[in-house]
Amino acid sequence: KQSDVPKNKETHTGSLIEQLTTEKYECMVCCEVVRIVAPVWSCQNCYHVFHLNCIKKWARSPASQAEDGNSGWRCPACQNASTQVPKIYTCFCGKVNNPEWNRNEIPHSCGELCGKKRQGLDCPHLCNILCHPGPCPSCPAFVTKTCECGQTSHSVRCGQSTKIHCSNVCGNTLNCGKHSCTQVCHTGKCSPCQLTVRQVCYCGSNFKEVLCGTQEEFSDGFGNFSCQNICGKKLNCGRHNCTQVCHPQPCPLCPRLPQVVYRCPCGQTPLSKLLELGCVERKICTDPIPSCGKTCGKPLSCGSYEFVHTCESLCHEGDCKPCTHTSNIYCRCGFKKKVSGFLFFVAAITFMCDKRCNKKRSCGRHKCNEVCCVDTEHKCSFVCGRKLNCGLHKCEEPCHRGSCQTCWQTSFDELTCYCGESVIYPPVPCGTQPPECKKTCTRPHDCNHPVYHSCHSEEKCPPCTYLTQKWCMGKHEKTVFLTILLPPGSLNLHLYTLFSSFICCHKCNVMFFFFRIAARSIATKLTDLQLGDSVEISRLITKKEMKQARLQCDEECLALQRNRRLAEALEIDDNSDPFNIRSSGPKYSDLLKEDARKDLKFVSDIEKEMRMLVEAVNKGKNPKKSHCYPPMNRDHRRIIHELAQVYGIESVSYDNEPKRNVVITAVKGKSICPSNTLTSILDKEMHSRPPPPIPHYKQTDKSSGSSGLSKPLKEEPVIDYFDVQD
C-alpha cells in the first residue's frame, strides 16, 4: 500500500499524516508498525518514514552500500545515496531534537511552522504550514511574471512551472545581428537566421552560399573563408605574386626585396661580405642574389632519423635538386624497407608494412591479425559470446581467458515444483532447477494404475511399476506381469512387446514365439530400466525356449555352407594362399627405411599400434576402428602416413601447427597385417652386417721398460651407421 505514490503533494502529505496518526504506517526495514512514540527518520528525497534504529542498522549493513563504494549508503525505498548516518531523532522540519508527542499535534512533529524552502522551485517564500511529513505544498502567494518575449506581464501563482506565452511576434534580434525573429512568443533562444547570403573567399576567386550570420567572425573586410588555392595576388613590389594559400588580407612583403634578403641563397655567407669581394649590389627584387660558391648543404626532406641527407649542389636559388642517395626507412613495427632518396617527404610519412600480426590476443582464442602491429597488450575487441552456466544466456563481456562468470540475471518470480508444494522464493538466480518435492506425482498418466513415484520436473514420467495379472492367448493360465508403458522408439521397445503379449506352453503356440519372463526377476531390474539401461534376460529363458528361438538359415547362410563344402572337397585350407597373394612381402620405400633407422623405437611403437588396430577391427563387430596419435612433428607424421599405406589403413592429419596430429582408421576386410614388418627387416639388416674391426696393438720390447702393450694405433674407428639407438 505504500508503493502507490499520490498524484500531488497535498495528497502525499495528507496520506502520511493519516497513517502515522492512526498507527497504520509500516517501516520498510522491519515491516513493523511505526508507533507514535517511536523515534523515526524521514528520507528527504522520497519522504518515507523508518524507525531510527532500523535505518541505523540498514546504513551499516553491506547491502546498503552504493555501487561505487564512495557515495555512502542507499535509502531502502528510493535508493538515494547519503553520506551521513542519522544519529539523532528530530522532527520533520529538523528544528527540535527528540520531540515529545502531543495528542493535538501531528506525531513526530514539533508543532511549529515548517519554514523549509520548497525544493526544485524558484519560490523565495518559505513553507508556512505546521511541521509535517512529506513534501511541502505549493506556495499560495501570487507574483507578476512576463511572457517569454518580454512584451506582456501576468499575475500567476508563485512557483508555477508553466511558461507564459502571448500572441505577439517575438521581434528579438537574431544571431546575424541584422534581422529580427518572426516567430510568435516562444520558449528558449530564437532560431538562427534562415536567410542565405553570398560570401567570397579571401583571394576573391571563389564564392559560396551560406546562412546569414555564419562565419562572420572570420571576415577580414573583403572575404569570409579560404578556398585553399594559391592566393596569386600581386605583392607590394608589383612584380611577383603571392605564393601562400588563400589567406586574410594583407599579403606579406616580397621575399626577394633587397631590404629583406641579407644572405646568399644557401644562407652561409652575408651579402655584405660578397659586396666586399666585388659582387654587384641589388637594387630591385628581380636582381639575382649573389652566390657564395660553397656547397649548398641544405637538409633535404628525404633520409631517415639517424642520417639526414643534404644538398650537394653549389649555392643556388630555388628548390634543391632531388637526392641521389638511398636510405633505409623503417615501418612502425620495425620492418626495414629501402627507399630511394629522391622521394620527397619520405621521413615524414609513417610507413606500414603488409605483415599481419600472428600473436594471440589477451583472450587466448583469437589472433591479432593487425597490419604492421605495434600493440603490446593485444586486447581482444570481440564479445565473448559463450553460453553461461545457466545454459540460456550468453556472456556479453569482452572476450577473456578462463571460465565466464555466473549468469547475473535473476528472476523475481517464485520457482515451484510441478504440483506447487515446494517453493523457492525470489530472488532466484538464472539456471536454478525446480525444488525437489516428496509429494506423489500429479501429472496425467497413460494408465489408470496407482502412482508410486514422487513429483518431478521432467516432462515424461517414469514407467508404471504396478503388477497386473494377464491371461494367455488361449485362456489356459494367468501370470503376473509388470506393466511398463514405454514411448515408441525407445531402446526398451522389445521388452514392451514381451510384456504386452503372453503365450503359455499349450496349444497357444503360433508362428511367432514370445519369451516367458518372470515378473519377479524383472521387478528387481526396474531401477535399471528407469535409467535407460538394458536387462540381460537370457538367464530367465529355458533351454527348450532357446532351441525353439533359433534363427532359420537364409540364402547368405546357405552360400557360406556351400563354399565351405567346396573348400573341403578341393582340400583347400582357409589359411593357405593358393594365388601367392599374401606371401608377397610389403614394399617399404628407401626413404622410409632411412627415416626408420634414425628413430627405430618410434617406428616399432607405431607398427605395434597398427597391428593391434587391424587385429581388433578384424575380430570385432564394428566395420571400422580409429586411433588418434598425439601431436608430433612433420617427419613423424610422414612415417605414419607411409606405414598406413602398407597396412591398408586410412590416415588423415588434423589441426594446425604445433598441435597437428594424425588419426588412423582400420577398415574390416581392407586393412592387413604384413608378414614382415619394417622393424623386423631393419633388425635382419643390422645382424647380417659384419662386426666392426678390433683395434690392433703393437708389442714392444721388454728391455724398453714398458710392460705389456703400447698405445693403440691411430686408426679411424669403423662406425656402423645402421646401429641406431634411442
From TrEMBL:
Compositional bias annotation for Low complexity: 702-711
Domain PHD-type: residue ranges: 24-81
GO MF term (any one): zinc ion binding
UniProt family annotation: Belongs to the NFX1 family.
UniProt cross-references to Pfam families, sorted A to Z: R3H (PF01424), zf-NF-X1 (PF01422)
Domain spans labelled RING-type: 27-79
Keyword terms: DNA-binding, Metal-binding, Nucleus, Phosphoprotein, Repeat, Repressor, Transcription, Transcription regulation, Transferase, Ubl conjugation pathway, Zinc, Zinc-finger
Region (Disordered): 683-726
UniProt xrefs under InterPro entries: NFX1_fam (IPR034078), R3H_dom (IPR001374), R3H_dom_sf (IPR036867), R3H_NF-X1 (IPR034076), Zinc_finger_PHD-type_CS (IPR019786), Znf_NFX1 (IPR000967), Znf_PHD-finger (IPR019787), Znf_RING (IPR001841)
Superkingdom of origin organism: Eukaryota
PROSITE patterns in the record: R3H, ZF_PHD_1, ZF_PHD_2, ZF_RING_2
Protein's name according to its UniProt entry: Transcriptional repressor NF-X1
GO BP field: negative regulation of transcription by RNA polymerase II
